[in-house]
Design brief:
Blueprint: E1 3-10, E2 16-24, E3 28-38, E4 41-45, E5 48-50, E6 56-58, H1 65-87, H2 92-99
Antiparallel strand pairs: 1-2, 2-3, 3-4, 5-6
Length: about 100
Amino acid sequence: MHITDVKVYPVEEDKLKAYVTITLDHCFVIRDLKVIHGASGLFIAMPAKRRKDGTYKDIAHPLNADTRNQMERTILQEYERHLQTAAGGPSPFLAAAADHD
């Protein structure tokens, strides 16, 4: 499985930094992934549906850590690239994302 396209849709919220749509192998789309700034830096949240009891359940998610890490790395790199393009310079998150490689 390869992520063949990443689209970043920035938002102006406290912890939520962007919504993301990814395409897998040019043939499968996953929408509404989220880039979130947490206590230990940026991470990706999978699309989820709210249940009647108020809890959330992932609609789609990786089944293993390697796939999750690959997705997170690819999405965060594209998010950083988007920030650099929008701001015209390096992003403060870029160095932190590179440290996780």
